[in-house]
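REVIEWER CHECKLIST
Item 1: Sequence provided? yes
Item 2: Single chain? yes
Item 3: Sequence as submitted:
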Amino acid sequence: MNYKKITSLNVVFFGLAAAALAQFVLPFCAPMGKMVMACQKTQSAEFLLGVSTAIIGAVAFIVSFKKDVSRIVSVIGAVAGFFVAAIPTVIIGTCASVHMHCHAVAQPALVIFGVVQVLFFAANTAYILWRHKHEFKPH
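Item 4: Structure as written out by the authors:
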């Protein structure tokens, strides 16, 4: 298996992991009647972002014979990681009370996961660029 397919599979893994964290693992507030809380919007956004990222990775796996797919997908993985961390902190947020589970547990967990994802794909992108630069090219 070449590094293009491995990069695509990593994007699928991180996307599915973000979706699973948001939907099944991390604690978010339950719906309270017709009132929609910020943490519920964050949960939905994180789930949709994770599923979208996984779909992009799956499509990239299928078309991995193209030349620049691994670079593009690796950058998409890093950008998705940025949004995983930004949604619960800056973009949407969670409940304001520090004693709520969504604020005390889910928000830091998503930020850590997003930062790890950004670092992983930044290192992956650097490796891909280094490998592309040092590839054997016949004259």
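Item 5: Key structural point noted by reviewer: The helical segments are 3-25, 38-62, 69-91, 101-133.
Item 6: Recommendation: ____
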